[in-house]
Amino acid sequence: MTIDIHDDKKKYCRILGHELTFTYCRQTAAAQPCGKIFDCWFETFDIDRFMKKHFTPDQLKTLLTPQKPKMASLIELIQQAQKTTNENKPDE
Is residue 1 part of a domain? Predict the structure, then answer.
């Protein structure tokens, strides 16, 4: 089984809101598989077997590690920006 065997298959992407081929899911803009790849493709083909064959255990571990909620990431970014702003303020 080659890595591109399912590349022409299409699904509606719940994250981006339109139809995509498996190629995109397998290698997103971040050059990593989408974190939802298992959820979206398990009914179409044996995604577990495919992923185990074509990706290392470390890649799969990273992929399966839950990401922070977007709100938590936004709060962290705001706090970092505030800290940087406060550090760069001239003393009065």
Answer: no
**16 in any annotated domain:** yes
Query: Mind listing the pLDDT tens digit for each residue in 6-32?
Result: 999 999 999 899 999 999 999 987 788
pTM: 0.68
Residue 4 domain-assigned (yes or no): no
The residue range of the domain holding 50 is: 10-87
Burial (Cβ within 10 Å: 0-12, 13-18, ≥19) of residue 13: middle
Residue-wise pLDDT tens digits, 43-70: 999 999 999 999 999 999 988 888 778 8
Structural domains counted in the chain: 1
35 vs 28: CA distance, rounded Å: 10
Tell me which residue of 65, 68, 32 sits closest to 51, measured CA to CA: 32
- What's the rounded Cα separation, in Å, for the pair 27 and 70? 21
